[in-house]
Each structure stands twice: as C-alpha cells, then as structure tokens.
Amino acid sequence: MPKDLRYFLKEVEDNQSDDFVRIEKEVDPKFELCGVIRKFQENGKYPLVYFEKVRGTKFPIVSNLFANPRRLALAFGVRENSMLLDYMSKEDKRIPSRMVSDGPVKENKFAGSKVDLSIIPHITHCEKDAAPYVTSGVSVFKDPDTGAYDTGIFRLMYKGKNKFGILFGDYSKAMHVIRKYEAKGKPTEMAFFIGHHPAATLTSQTKVPLGLDEFSVMGGLLGEAVELVECETVDAHVPAYSEIVVEGKILPNIREPEAPFGEYTWYYGLERMSHVLEVSAIMYRTDPIYHDIFSAHADHNMAAKVQREAVVYKRIKLAIPTIKDVDLPISGTCRHTAYVAFKKDYDGQGKIASIAALASDPMIKLAVIVDDDINVRNEQEVWWAVATRAQADRAITMVPEAYVAELDPSAYSIQSRSERASLNTKWAIDATRPIDLPFQQRADVPSEFWKDINLESYIKQK
Question: In CATH, what is the architecture of 305-430?
C-alpha cells in the first residue's frame, strides 16, 4: 500500500490511538472546527482530530496532524529522541520519483466552466481572517530553465468559484520561478495538492538547494518513490495518491487585496496586495479526506520545525564542525529563535557560531549559543546558561537592517523604523564559558546515580 494520508491515519490509529480523536458531531467550518482543536490545546493536548461531519461539505476533515512531536517522528519514520539527526539522514537519501499514467486523484475531474471551488471545504480559522483559507495546499512549480520541481505551502484565500489570492514571500523559491515568467509577461502554471502522507506534505518545508528536484527528497523521506501523474490543464506533475489537486495559472503582474490572516507569528498578517491564482481544473479521489492545518497555533508552527532545524544545523556545521544540536523552539514560533549547542575549542568561537546561526536562515532573529553540556531542547537549561555564563556587554552581537520576513510584526522598512516591512535587527547571545579562564563547575548528582534509574522500582505500588 503506497504511503499516503490514509496510510498515515491508520498508522496513528493503530500505534498512537490515544492521540487520535474522532468527532462525530457536525461542526461549523467557521470557527467551530478550529474551536474544538483550540479547546484541546487549552487543556495541554495536541491530538490528531478527524471531523466526520462538517457543515456545507461532504468531505471529512483531518487537522492538527503536525502539532505533536511524537506524531512528527512517526511521520518521518524516526526516533523522537534523535529526530533531527535521523531526519537529516533520510532527507539526504533521495529516491527519484516515478511517472504513472493514472492514479486515484484522477477519479473525479472537473475543468474549465465546470470548476467550482465551493466543493472544497471553506474553513475560517481566526476571528479576523478576511475569508476562508486553504492552509495545507502544497504548491508545485516547475522551473522553466532547469525543469526541476519546487514545492511550498502558501496561504490561499478563497476569492470566488475559480479564484484564489495567494501570498509568496520574496525570498521563496516559488517567487524565483514566478519572476522568470512575469519578466516575459506570461502566467505561471502551478498546481497544489491537499492531503497526502505528512512526510510528503512536509517536504515542501525543506530548504534544499535551488534546482534540486523536491520530489526526490519527498521519496527519501517516504522511503519509496513518489508516483506522479500529469495535470489536466497545466504543465506540472502531482502525486498520484493526493486526496485533492487544484490546477491553475498565476496571472502576470496582477495583485489584489488579500488578508488579514492569522499567521505563524500568532498575529494577523496584514492586508497586502498579493498574487492571483485563476483555477482551471480540480481533481480528487472518491470519498476524499480534506487536510487542514490549524493556522496561528502549534499545528502551523511545528509543520516546519524539523526541516528548518536541519538546514540551520547543516549551515552552521560548515563554520562550527563541533555543533551538537539545534532547536527552533515553539516559543519563537519555530522560526525566529534558535538555540545552538556546540563543543567550544577556543575563545571567540562562540561569536563565530553566533554569526553563522543568524545567517543560516533569514527568519532567525535571535540565536542563543551554549556549551555542549546544555540541552537546547530544555528552555530552562538554555536560559540558565544565559543567566549564569553571559556578560551582556561581551555576549550580545547585533546586526541591524537584516532581512527577516514580511510577516514579522516588528519588522521595519529601510526608510523608517515606524513603517512595517521586512527588515529587523538580528541579535545573538553567546552564553558559552571562556576556555582560557577558570569557571565554576556545574553542581549535580553523579550521572551514574540518576541517568538510567527506573523510577517504578523505587515507588511503592498502590
């Protein structure tokens, strides 16, 4: 059985049944569906939620797939306690995709005047969202020069029966392709798929080099070749086992108002002039399952966590071979803050690590650099290191007027700090101990007396 969304849902239900919740009661796609997930979050729970009945659509909806690290480990087929290193190994083992003549996603097809986006569930996530949004659509672009495929998740605002507003970051590889077509006054053909195995969906969040075919990366993460089919109305390939595929063209040099929309920052992305996608075809499986990402919450943030950690780790390693671990904590929205641990060999190396971390991902605003005795996946330890090892006048490095992201609510423009744009002051804290000066030792119980203890053998059973 090919690894698709249905395969993964069964895997979770069979192996993590305590993390799989079915909602039988009909829910309203405007706020109520997300309200159920929000209530779980309020209680400190992040289950996969399967809504069997959603008002206005025949499609069941699954959400919150990515909110739990345990599920991410299952999705990538790795160990939770070594997820980053295991993930990087799989990301580098690429498996070429395979074209097939037909696939389940082509079981139902509508094109031209028969296209009507009302068939797709219309989910409104946050109170001030301008409209319902598709949040899980994995957009597929083909570079006209290299023929390589790039994928990415970009927010899609419903604008009518055959139109979406779609936001692309200036730094995205998709914009690299779109600029080539717009320079010639031509539309950019694209497709996006909704609903696949999480390892396939999350490939879109990898940061592999420009020109590398991402379907081969997808195959490596899935552990099998991805079967692809031709689209009906555009020159693109899409996974044959997708639940839904939408095809269309990005109109050249046309922008329309789009947003506000609850973003990964947990703030609303402000209204802006965004690209327009004119839809030319829809395909979907019989009895399709719609996948939604719960925006502005953990599901949204965690979707890119491991993939971004991987690229940050690899890039820092070029400057700091002794790097031990990287964490992009959810407190920094899994994008804006990085904790980096490494084995320090000489004084001044912490500064090099600081600069490397800030340069490793445009979105990183704050990097905290610590020694390798600190567990960067425990924020209490990270900030204990800052509190006890850092001297602020020596530890802090600042880089003003650096690109971060248009969605950063504190970003400013080159003209004025009071004007919102995409620049910010990046900063790093070197919280490592000096090599050539004495430093007090950390107080703790000898590790042999607690690391491998089985507490159940000590606790009196009731």
Answer: 3-Layer(aba) Sandwich (3.40)
Of the candidates 352, 324, 321, which has an alpha carbon nearest to the alpha carbon of residue 339?
324
In this structure, what is the dihedral angle of CA atoms 172, 178, 183, 186, given to the nearest 10 degrees? -170
Q: Is 354 helix (H, G, I), strand (E, B) or coil?
A: helix
Lowest average pLDDT, out of 51-55, 192-196, 201-205, 381-385, goes to 201-205
pLDDT tens readout for residues 394-429? 999 999 999 998 889 999 999 999 898 899 999 999
Pick left, alpha or beta for residue 448 (phi over 0 → left; psi -120 to 50 → alpha; otherwise beta).
alpha
Whether 65 contacts 48, CB under 8 Å:
yes
The model's pLDDT over 214-259, given as tens digits with 9 standing for 90+, comes to 999 999 999 999 999 999 999 999 999 999 999 999 999 999 999 9
The domain limits of the chain are 5-302, 305-430
- The encoded tokens of residue 30 equal 């405007």
CATH architecture of 5-302: Roll (2.30)
Between the alpha carbon of residue 269 and those of residues 155, 171, 204, 224, 310, the distances in Å are: 11, 17, 21, 37, 26
Pairing of strands 290-292, 61-63: parallel
